[in-house]
Amino acid sequence: MAAPSSPSPVRASPKVIDLLTRLHKQSIDQDPEVNATLNSAIELRKHDPTELHKHDPIESTRELNELMLDKFVALDQDKCEFLYQLVLATGAKHVVEAGTSFGVSTIYLALAISENSKEGKVIATEKEASKAARAREHWREAGEEVEKYIELREGDLLETLKSGLEKVDLLLLDIWTPLVLPTLKTVQSCLTPGAVIVADNTISSAAGYADFLSYVRDPAGPFRNLTLPYTNGLEVIVYRP
């Protein structure tokens, strides 16, 4: 993670700032445990779950969900602050977050949306009930300046996002790579002209993103693509149908 910007662009109550600081610290402190978990899985299962997607994306996603059930896997703080600024700059009011985990980046999205429109909403998705419960705890702790702008959809996001989306101004893809392209295609008909899609770790996980990147980089397609040099890469894509 790059050094967080100073001062932070985020405007929120001291209570929320303290919460975010604590959650980012917990996520960073957990990084060695995440790496150890993956290394142990490789040794035990004789394969790397992050590479399994090449021939069995469904099993890869299942294994990774199982391994990371109690892990933050939170978006880096500098990326969260960039997202916050991006929502402000675009005036986004309708945001979909694919992959909520413990709800850290969701807080940034909700704070930014609240400045754009009191009718705005972040539709967050999370498959694992235990993670969804933790996310709700964090949003409840943040209070009304955050919680009332979030709608959490639990379950398989390829099902929960099939309906109930009128339009999407920004889509955050922070999920296992086998799900990224199917999620974009599920939401694509709801994207507004000029909508922004953000995908995390597109440099470090380039192999897993291959089909997705081929799709959004098609010169004949409706997307304009740029890779930003954040840690492990951050893809920013503009939808121009």
Automatic annotation (TrEMBL):
Belongs to the class I-like SAM-binding methyltransferase superfamily. Cation-dependent O-methyltransferase family. CDD domains: AdoMet_MTases (cd02440). It comes from Eremomyces bilateralis CBS 781.70. This is O-methyltransferase. One of its GO terms (molecular function) is O-methyltransferase activity. Keywords: Methyltransferase, S-adenosyl-L-methionine, Transferase. SUPFAM superfamilies: S-adenosyl-L-methionine-dependent methyltransferases. InterPro entries: SAM-dependent_MTases_sf, SAM_O-MeTrfase. Gene3D superfamilies: Vaccinia Virus protein VP39 (3.40.50.150). One of its GO terms (biological process) is methylation.
